[in-house]
Amino acid sequence: MVGTEQPVKAAEDSPSALEEEQPAPAGARDGRPVLVTGAAGFVGTQVCRELARRGWKVRALVRRPNVAARRLAGVPAELVAGDIRDPEVLRSAARGTAAVIHLAAIAIERPGQSYESVNTDATVELLAAARAAGVERFVQMSQNGASSASPYRFLRSKGVAEDRVRESGLQWTVLRPSVIFGPGDEFVNVLARLVRLSPVIFPLPGGGTARFQPVAVGDVARATCIALEKPESIGRSYALGGPAALTLRQMIERVLLAMEAHRILIDVPLSVLSPLVALAQRLLPNPPVTTSLLDLLEVDNTVNDTDAWNDFGITPSPFAPDELSYLREITVRDAVRAMMGGK
């Protein structure tokens, strides 16, 4: 697929909002944009807004330009439409850029999209495109727990990609977030949709003992942009987690408080849920969870250090009911439409 480019004019952000940060970095001053893959995604939209606010020009690689134009309304971004797995698209998108922020990835496989092709192979092709274009700076969004030795295909695909970034010869920084939350996320919002579909009893997979360290999408976006700008971050990996480690039960309890909902929490063994999830995968166009993701509940998803927040000067937001008030807007109709593949 050949990429097509179109400008998106600012419609919301005022010039003062874009100029309130420190002086623009070198790449912005010489007119070169930052290429952001996955730019219309949950994290990508926030990163693009933060880059523009900090004075960077943004080149956004997206799959669906019409959707991207809506999601990036107000961001003076240049849209490039194309498949992240297409080397020609990547070479064109990387040409003339100052840096690459690679966010595009999948957590749920769909027909024609495997973990290996999207998370690993596309990263390898993007690194090659960056080198061919003379781009030196590369920020990779990985995943907490990612490892090329992981028995879990999702984490292994991200781990192998991370290895390729480290071996690339570029000036790389790797970010490894725990579960990211915010309006539009595909974890906490899924929990909220399941709450709407479970009017009395809510099943807790594995007793709700799985551990996470949820981190706010705004904090991740800021960390990504600061990492790009800080020479000290080159050649380093940063774990990104919120201020508190929480079990899945504790997270669901906070979701219920935020939604002003009451449910009886019932422990359900993973062995009982797994065949039901497998059936839902076969029947639903957009299942809320897959067996692969269910397996990941056995992996501790907490972080062991706070170097990122100390180095970047960020105080992470808590996973608290006040921060989750947007979940109240989710309706039963929204939940059903999401599972059926609706917008």
Describe the global form. Answer: globular
Detail the poorly predicted runs.
1-24
Structural class: alpha/beta
Strand order within the widest sheet? 1-4-3-2-5-6-7-12
**How many alpha or pi helices?**
14
- Percentage of residues in DSSP E strands: 15-25%
Word description of this protein:
- With 343 residues, the protein is of the alpha/beta class.
- The protein folds into two domains: 4-177, 3-Layer(aba) Sandwich (Rossmann fold); 181-214 and 243-301 and 317-343, UDP-galactose 4-epimerase, domain 1 (Alpha-Beta Complex), CATH 3.90.25.
- It is 39% helix and 17% strand.
- The chain contains 14 helices and 14 strands.
- The protein has helices at 15-18, 26-29, 42-53, 65-71, 87-94, 115-132, 153-166, 188-196, 217-229, 248-259, 270-283, 291-295, 307-312, 332-339, and strands at residues 4-7, 34-37, 58-62, 77-81, 99-102, 137-141, 171-177, 180-181, 201-205, 211-212, 215-216, 236-240, 246-247, 264-268.
- The strands form four sheets. An eight-stranded mixed beta sheet has the order 1-4-3-2-5-6-7-12, sandwiched between helices. It has a two-stranded parallel sheet with strand order 8-11.
- α6 (115-132) links the parallel β5 (99-102) and β6 (137-141).
- α8 crosses α10 (248-259) and α8 (188-196) crosses α14.
- The radius of gyration is 20 Å and the shape is globular.
- The chain starts with a strand and ends with a helix.
- The model is unreliable at 1-24 (pLDDT under 50).
